[in-house]
Amino acid sequence: MPTHTTTHSAHTVLTPIVLTIAGSDSGGGAGIQADIKAISATGSYACSVITAITAQNTLGVSAIFPIPLEHIEKQLDAVFSDLNIVAVKVGMLADSDTIKLVAAKLKQYQPAFLVVDPVMVATSGDLLLQASAISTLKSELLPLADLITPNLPEAAALTDSPLPTDDLAMRAMVDQLRQLEVKTVLLKGGHLEQEDNSTDLLILADRIEELSAKRTPTQNTHGTGCTLSSAIASYLAQGHDLLHAVQLGKNYISKAIEHADELNIGAGHGPVNHFFQGHANAG
After folding, report:
1. Which of 13, 46, 66, 141 matches a 20 to 30 Å C-alpha distance to 21?
2. Of 42, 51, 54, 224, catalytic
3. Nearest to 253 by CA among 151, 152, 166
């Protein structure tokens, strides 16, 4: 009778595994679905822990069902106890208790890299997290992160400051963001739609690196923040240093936006084109 001797340790090439901890988007453009697409398209293996189930499409969110804490914990234990997770991306966490649980589990399992996309503000401008939950995010989770990736409304919420409306006001936030207990911040300038370029600021302890890409005129930008943070986590898992991983992530999301109109998804703000490389090859 044949015996199977293949074990995990028998594999000579380690697959870069990235965990996304976030909410599910039934429309497929953002959240867990966007994360899995971005991690896969950039060459890593994606696993997931779902923190909430949303009913949404390209026109908006109609319902949110938070996953019970016990089941979030069981998902985390399941993936960490079996998979060699190198990098973690955290997105939507519904409340303080969920944030505390995820932070405690990350301290327990200590993945090599943590990227936090602080999903706090809806496109409409509505706060998705209560003030107490923002405080918990800042005290419990952000200090664990190697990188956080706020857009301008999220950065304004984190620093309790006005929403920047131009490049100068965006740069004026740097000192306040440096005062957060965070290693590195990628401040995204995508909301400054009057600018020809979309410029992000990578705020390091000793300097600022600018990452700029020509702005693509399209309404199909749903899930850009999820996609970018997941791509960066993917590149970190593959061994790139932080600056290079951010540069690669910025290049990936810029191209995914550039090719977004090749898709025709829904009647509202459609998704970016995560698999633009495959489509280009097919052509």
Report:
1. 13
2. 224
3. 151
Q: pLDDT of 98-128, one tens digit each?
A: 999 999 999 999 999 999 999 876 655 556 6
Domains of the chain with CATH codes = 15-151+219-282 (3.40.1190.20)
* Helical (H) or strand (E) element with 90: strand 85-90
* pTM confidence score: 0.92
- Is 223 a catalytic site residue? yes
- Catalytic annotation, pick one of 221, 227, 249, 270: 221
- Tokens matching residue 104: 């405690």
28 Cβ neighbours under 8 A, 6+ residues apart? 34, 265, 271
Catalytic residue among 37, 89, 100, 188: 188
Sole residue written with tokens 């702005």: 215
The answer to whether residue 214 is catalytic is no
DSSP string, 151-182: BHHHHHHHHT-PPP-SHHHHHHTHHHHHTSS-
Q: Which of 91, 223, 249, 270 is catalytic?
A: 223
- pLDDT given for residue 1 in this prediction: 46
Q: Which residue in 29, 189, 226, 250 is the catalytic one?
A: 226
Helix orientation angle between 31-41 and 224-237, rounded to the nearest 10 degrees:
40
